[in-house]
Amino acid sequence: MIEMHDIWKTYSDGTHALRGVSVQIDSDEFVYLVGPSGAGKSTFMKLIYREEVPTKGQISVSGFNIGKLKSRKIPYVRRNIGVIFQDFRLLPQLSVFDNVAFAMEVIEAPRRAIRKRTLEVLELVGLHHKQASLPSQLSGGEQQRVSIARAIVNNPTVIVADEPTGNLDPDTSMGIMHLLEEINYRGATIVMATHNKEIVNNMRKRVIAIENGVIVRDEARGEYGYEI
């Protein structure tokens, strides 16, 4: 599903964000990506959805060689990758329904299919009754659920979640995590960067720890392993 072979990423200022990273993440896995700030987690995530390209090495996602992907092919690959951000990144002038539907509109899905699928995912995330609301009328947890609905509306095989509970209280965070578990159970591979020690330790999944651009630990049902 996701394979990295000897990945190096060096930015223009000389920063070595990743140094010789090799890893394989299989279909249907749920993986926590942990490590101190500046360790290379964000770069790792951005490489998956082709926001960045490696300086050296090869990365493939769902069979696509991401690093050598031609520009015209990028939108097709991103249809198979859902991204969830810590700060939600919803369009403030659009309703909940339209924020989610927008992800299908950009790939020119049929109007009837857009309505049907958008209502399905809003039901899944528990926001069917809020479809006409604006983001400003929602709580932080509700906004994150809209973000998740948008990320999954095109049935991606891979979901990248960058600190999805970072701005949420503990109870709301657990609700979001149970939702992500359900999405994983339905077949999506999830890679989630987090600093939330409690979530990682209570909801045991595979843990990949990165420090100074290098994978220092890769454990099935691992623990967070850092003091907060």
Automatic annotation (TrEMBL):
<keyword id="KW-0547">Nucleotide-binding</keyword>
<dbReference type="InterPro" id="IPR003439">
    <property type="entry name" value="ABC_transporter-like_ATP-bd"/>
</dbReference>
<dbReference type="InterPro" id="IPR027417">
    <property type="entry name" value="P-loop_NTPase"/>
</dbReference>
<keyword id="KW-0132">Cell division</keyword>
<keyword id="KW-1003">Cell membrane</keyword>
<dbReference type="InterPro" id="IPR015854">
    <property type="entry name" value="ABC_transpr_LolD-like"/>
</dbReference>
<protein>
    <recommendedName>
        <fullName>Cell division ATP-binding protein FtsE</fullName>
    </recommendedName>
</protein>
<keyword id="KW-0131">Cell cycle</keyword>
<comment type="subunit">
    <text>Homodimer. Forms a membrane-associated complex with FtsX.</text>
</comment>
<comment type="similarity">
    <text>Belongs to the ABC transporter superfamily.</text>
</comment>
<dbReference type="InterPro" id="IPR003593">
    <property type="entry name" value="AAA+_ATPase"/>
</dbReference>
<feature type="domain" description="ABC transporter">
    <location>
        <begin position="2"/>
        <end position="228"/>
    </location>
</feature>
<dbReference type="InterPro" id="IPR005286">
    <property type="entry name" value="Cell_div_FtsE"/>
</dbReference>
<keyword id="KW-0472">Membrane</keyword>
<dbReference type="Pfam" id="PF00005">
    <property type="entry name" value="ABC_tran"/>
</dbReference>
<dbReference type="GO" id="GO:0051301">
    <property type="term" value="P:cell division"/>
</dbReference>
<dbReference type="InterPro" id="IPR017871">
    <property type="entry name" value="ABC_transporter-like_CS"/>
</dbReference>
<keyword id="KW-0067">ATP-binding</keyword>
<dbReference type="GO" id="GO:0005524">
    <property type="term" value="F:ATP binding"/>
</dbReference>
<comment type="function">
    <text>Part of the ABC transporter FtsEX involved in cellular division.</text>
</comment>
